[in-house]
Known about the structure:
The protein is of the alpha+beta class. The protein is 59% helix and 22% strand.
Amino acid sequence: MSALQRWFQSLAQREQRMVLIGAVAAVAVLLLGAWLPVERRVSRLEAQVQTQQADLAWLQTVAPQIGAMRSGPRGLGNESVIALADRVAHETGIARALNTQAGSDGTCSVRLEQVAFDSLLNWAGELVLRHGVRIVSASIDGSANAGMVSATIVLRAS
Length: 158
């Protein structure tokens, strides 16, 4: 270290100033070179944490539904497919649009007029996932009203 001090002292004052400025610049470049990548990494990790927290919140909201699906379909019990379709329509709020007709081969034809597409999917999902009803065929037609559809669906007990 003393050799370095002797060398520095042997320099002219102007050269000493240039060496000090160069040393400060080198230290600044090294610090920034180490700090910026760390800062970028921290920002990326914070964004990942926020995304994962949003995913966790969503999963917590759908966990009860997933748990209900895991328990498997409950089956029809003593209820006919027509009665079940009507009951689930009342539960999902689309009973006013429902018209059912029994088929000769154990099927049930359901006609829904001007119902929200999301509500139709909720009704059908409830029948299939929770009650084990099978959809034999479905015909869904759009409407002039956004999000509204008319559908004819043929159901059968599994």
